[in-house]
């Protein structure tokens, strides 16, 4: 009993936060977030860069691959990405608590669970062409998109391993190996994709194959680092029966994590689809696609700050230091707020020429300039919620985040978008205002939840989660 109390001991002392202490936390957060931006952008480009080359083959190849990519993001990649986020809670808190071997065990369990999920997703992708035809898509485009989706199936499994390894390393603040492996994989993918598409004449199949090979390369590089690097020596674990004991804990956090990510991701895709029902759909879809691309690319920056928040908060809660977790939260918020304000001002300043980065159609460029002020608000709201969502993952209250996203986007955002876009005839601008309304409700809700969080209680729950499980406790690692 005394030992259990010692394990669950939480430092409740009120610590006076000095300027030096806060400065050190700012440095630590920046050390995680800055290279993480490169990691997330590089991994994003692995699936996007082949689109540029496919555009040179013809309109059919590009449109079919784009539709298949959108469908695969919604039904597969977003699901795996969200579920893997459960490791941010489990691995992050275990590392903070000094239960280092559990990181390896949790990661093995996550890979098994994600592989299981990949099976029904693969079956769904086999019938992509029939699904698209059922949705009213052009048969020629649907057939080509179906072929592309089938060739994407082999990318699911390395993607599942990759996302698990990323969370495993992120929990230990080991970002540099992820940065190097992601950049190397991206740099090698470009020539591989070019050879497959143009030299071997594989077309869409070659583009999909290059994505899979790039993911496998990324996975192999990270696995070699984990196996042979001394920095991972204390967190490496052999595959054992304990791995299967983690599956329940993983799904307990993975399901709400996936719901949290997918609800937000799907709302953006739904808005793009709805834009095709507006008068002059070519113009509306083009403008909203530009807005979506802009926010998607920028989102990797606040997401990386959110990853830093998740890592630092989970580590400190696992270590039983709630005051330090609050300091970490404050440091991330300051950096994130400064970044989104700077980004919004920059995009607003170039609003009249921003459209030229995507098209030379004067009508589209003018429309983009008109919608940019709303886009800037969207960037600010997205940046805020990305960091607070990271705090939710680090703290382990993804289930609350899932309810927030459901209410924000599907009870507020989408209905407001439909009202403004179709009833009040604000068209594409109205649809995007709806998304901003959803993001605003999401940000305010997460801010209130975070503000009223009892961090001492969160630290106790984190320690109980790590020490009271079925896995053996590593007494030798407890300070």
Automatic annotation (TrEMBL):
Keyword Membrane tagged: yes
Topology versus the membrane: Multi-pass membrane protein
GO cellular component, one term: membrane
Keyword set, alphabetical order: Membrane, Transmembrane, Transmembrane helix
Main location: membrane
Gene Ontology BP, a term: xenobiotic detoxification by transmembrane export across the plasma membrane
Membrane-spanning ranges: 108-128, 148-166, 178-198, 204-226, 327-351, 403-424, 430-455
Family: Belongs to the multi antimicrobial extrusion (MATE) (TC 2.A.66.1) family.
NCBIfam families associated with the record: matE
Protein name as it appears in the record: Protein DETOXIFICATION
Species of provenance: Nicotiana attenuata (Coyote tobacco)
Underlying gene: DTX14_0
């Amino acid at each position: 009993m005394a030992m259990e109390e010692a394990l669950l001991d939480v430092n409740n002392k009120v610590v006076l936060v000095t300027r030096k202490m806060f400065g050190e936390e700012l440095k630590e957060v920046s050390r995680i977030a800055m290279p993480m931006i490169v990691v997330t952008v590089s991994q994003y480009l692995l699936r996007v860069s082949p689109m540029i080359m496919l555009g040179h083959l013809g309109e059919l190849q590009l449109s079919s691959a784009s539709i298949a990519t959108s469908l695969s993001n919604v039904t597969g990649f977003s699901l795996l990405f969200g579920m893997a986020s459960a490791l941010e809670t489990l691995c992050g808190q275990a590392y903070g608590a000094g239960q280092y071997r559990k990181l390896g065990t949790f990661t093995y369990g996550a890979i098994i669970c994600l592989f299981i999920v990949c099976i029904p997703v693969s079956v769904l992708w086999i019938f992509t062409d029939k699904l698209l035809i059922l949705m009213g898509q052009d048969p020629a485009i649907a057939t080509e998109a179906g072929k592309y989706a089938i060739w994407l199936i082999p990318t699911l499994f390395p993607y599942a391993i990759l996302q698990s390894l990323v969370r495993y390393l992120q929990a230990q603040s080991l970002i540099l190996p992820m940065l190097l492996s992601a950049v190397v994989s991206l740099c090698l993918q470009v020539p591989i994709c070019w050879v497959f598409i143009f030299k071997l004449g594989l077309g869409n199949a070659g583009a999909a194959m290059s994505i899979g090979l790039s993911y496998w390369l990324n996975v192999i590089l990270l696995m070699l680092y984990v196996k042979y690097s001394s920095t991972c020596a204390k967190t490496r674990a052999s595959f054992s029966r304990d791995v299967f004991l983690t599956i329940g804990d993983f799904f307990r956090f993975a399901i709400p994590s996936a719901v949290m990510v997918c609800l937000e991701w799907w709302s953006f895709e739904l808005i793009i689809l709805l834009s095709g029902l507006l008068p002059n759909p070519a113009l509306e879809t083009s403008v909203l696609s530009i807005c979506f691309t802009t926010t998607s690319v920028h989102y990797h920056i606040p997401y990386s700050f959110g990853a830093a928040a998740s890592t630092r908060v989970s580590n400190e809660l696992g270590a039983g230091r709630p005051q330090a977790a609050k300091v970490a939260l404050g440091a991330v918020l300051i950096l994130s707020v400064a970044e989104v304000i700077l980004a919004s001002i920059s995009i607003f300043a170039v609003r009249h020429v921003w459209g030229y980065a995507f098209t030379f159609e004067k009508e589209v460029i003018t429309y983009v300039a008109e919608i940019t002020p709303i886009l800037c608000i969207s960037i600010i709201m997205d940046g805020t919620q990305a960091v607070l969502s990271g705090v939710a993952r680090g703290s382990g209250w993804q289930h609350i985040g899932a309810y927030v996203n459901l209410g924000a986007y599907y009870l507020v955002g989408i209905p407001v978008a439909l009202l403004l876009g179709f009833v009040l005839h604000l068209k594409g601008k109205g649809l995007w205002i709806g998304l901003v309304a959803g993001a605003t409700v999401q940000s305010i809700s997460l801010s209130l939840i975070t503000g009223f969080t009892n961090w001492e209680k969160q630290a106790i729950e984190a320690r109980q989660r790590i020490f009271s499980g079925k896995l053996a406790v590593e007494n030798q690692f407890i300070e």
